[in-house]
Amino acid sequence: MEQLLKQIAGYKEEVTSFMASTPDAAEEFRIKWLGTKGLVKTVMSEMKNVPADQRKEFGQVLNEFKLFVEAKYESLKETGQGNAGAGVSDIDWSLPGDPTPVGSRHPLSIVRNQVVSIFSRLGFAVAEGPEIEDDWHNFGAMNLPEDHPARDMQDTFYINRDPAWLLRTHTSSVQARVMEKQKPPIRVICPGRVYRNETISARAHCFFHQVEGLYIDENVSFADLKQTLYFFVQEMFGKDVKIRFRPSYFPFTEPSAEMDISCLICGGSGCNVCKHTGWVEILGSGMVHPKVLENFNIDPEKYTGFAFGMGVERICQLKYRVNDLRLYSQNDIRFLKQFTGAV
Ligand code: PHE
């Protein structure tokens, strides 16, 4: 009797510490303990050797032991460690998972990435620079005379007056930083956020995004500028879109031109977007002014170059027909999620 109780205590310990590491292990456990020749049956059969007056007490111990082993077996099955017979877990691995909600790319990022990708195929590298600039990189080096209206407090956010620290008004400042460090041939585009002190409305904002480009080498001509920008327009808006150049003025380019594309909305026949002209302006461009080259010790007799600058919001407006600039920075999820799926 004493001996039997000891044996059962030992069995209990063994059962308690048993862990199933494979699906088959729970089944092995069942056969060893609960099978027809299992240990539970074996101890049960000892009952006949127990003296009659101890049977009741012993019967309880045995019964409790049996329930204990059965409970252990159930828990082995439940934890997915094994399922008798089939050898598969109770978890249905074929059920679809809970989807993790993902956001969508901002339309301005989508358009910027497209612009960058088109120019990188032409061999342009991407250059970035600081949003807080000094007067030289933003204005001086770009041949903006001291009294140029763009320097006026009305357009520029000054952080400090003397020495001047300001929020860059264009990413030409990055071109300046590139020319400072690199000698021709130079082929870069400069995407980034710029700031101008404008009253916020549907058509103007105090910050927006630009991609400016710079190409300097020997024998670079206006024809190269035209061809490069024509390629860009066709890739960006489609093969049927036409371009035209209008003479313009920028202090850092000479000659300068603004480029229009045929209106994407009406195809050139005239609508509200193109103000019934059939054309919409998309960028400023020109041949780099010799003074700008000289500012960076690039010999204007040997090298020539072209530059251009476009507003990402403008391109985005034309591509996606967004009519209010404020939408880009309001973070309204109903607006932003419409661009899911674009790259
Ligand atoms: N820097 C000009 C602007 O911000 C754009 C531009 C760049 C024009 C290069 C001509 C050449 O408006």
Task: Explain what you see.
The protein has 343 residues and is α+β, with helices and mostly antiparallel strands. The protein is built from eleven helices and ten strands. It has helices spanning 2-17, 23-34, 39-44, 55-78, 107-121, 135-138, 172-181, 222-237, 290-295, 312-320, 333-336; strands at residues 125-126, 132-134, 158-160, 165-167, 186-195, 207-217, 243-250, 253-262, 279-288, 304-311. The strands form two sheets. The chain has a seven-stranded mixed beta sheet with strand order 1-5-6-10-9-8-7, sandwiched between helices. A hairpin with a 2-residue loop joins strand 7 (243-250) and strand 8. The longest helix is centred in the first third of the chain and has 24 residues, at 55-78. Bound molecules: phenylalanine. Phenylalanine binds at residues 170, 172, 212, 250, 253, 284-286, 307-309.
Task: List strands and helices in order, with pairings.
Blueprint: H1 2-17, H2 23-34, H3 39-44, H4 55-78, H5 107-121, E1 125-126, E2 132-134, H6 135-138, E3 158-160, E4 165-167, H7 172-181, E5 186-195, E6 207-217, H8 222-237, E7 243-250, E8 253-262, E9 279-288, H9 290-295, E10 304-311, H10 312-320, H11 333-336
Parallel strand pairs: 1-5
Antiparallel strand pairs: 2-4, 3-4, 5-6, 6-10, 7-8, 8-9, 9-10
The structure holds phenylalanine.
